[in-house]
Amino acid sequence: MKKIIIFGVILCLFISCQQQEQPTISFYYWKTIFRLSPKEKNTLTTNEVKRLYIRYFDIDLSPKTQKPFPRTPIRFEDVASGFEIIPVVYIKNKVMLDKKLNVLDLAQKTNSFIQQINSKNNITIQEIQIDCDWTLESKDNYLRFIDAFKKVSNKKLSATIRLHQIKYFKKTKIPNVDRGVLMYYNMGKIATDSFNSIYDLNIANRYLASLKNYPLPIDVALPIYSWGIHIRDGKIIGLRNKIDIDSLKNNNSFALTKNNWLTATNSNFKGGVFYKQNDQIKIETISENDLLEMANSLEENTTQNPKEIIFYDLDEMNLKKYDTALFKKIINCF
Q1: Is residue 13 very low, low, confident or very high in pLDDT (cuts 50, 70, 90)?
Q2: What is this structure's pTM?
Q3: Contact, 28 vs 53, CB < 8 A?
Q4: 312/255 same-domain check
């Protein structure tokens, strides 16, 4: 009898471990032209990536008409074969704040434009993702839009979810989607102090315990990007995305004044941006240790492993900071 009990315990543990499968690795592709470099292709192959989340277009308000319109749609120069493609549409919150917004019309036009892009590039899809940082003021329009879009598109639907929407879901509500993707980054206000606005464990800890109570199935997006905060006379004048940090550090027009801070030694143009003498660039980046810390914190605070970890974003400039094996290290934390 004792042997039977021990065998039963071992069997239960085995079944439990089998159920907690490791997540798969996916990437966001967030550029206006779809064209994969050799390094990007190698990263996808090495990590056995099957799914790409491609930003198809943004939705903003027209400056003239104040009506929603699509901005910077994707153009495919490479064939996206060999991957399951999930179109992502980023909708600015100010679109949803419009009290006169016709959500059905927006849903129909959004779906139609996705279909046009798919048809032109011979892409078949099963799912669409909506990316919008909705607020208490915009939630009614946003939730109605999600309902309308799900009916119009007749596809599986996912939505990006922020930490505050996890913790306060009874107020912010839960969109009618098949699953959410927790954007585990952009945690704080962009500032001129030493704070890293992309990731800060102290801020994350305010929200992590709430993950166990969120009723929607959740996958996770993790950051692999960097940016520079452009500061002049103590004030932020711009955010420099896709910044080549190594190029700046090796440029005689910039001096490393303290850890991750650069100062322009003379007035110059770099990457199409004018830097006045004494301008500062505060570099915010994510290290390998940061990513491992994120994964471990998430694993400790979830009742069920995410099925997928999506890295933001697939870009040679981002990838060169990391060893290709890092992505499998991350999913091994779960």
Answers
A1: very low
A2: 0.92
A3: yes
A4: no
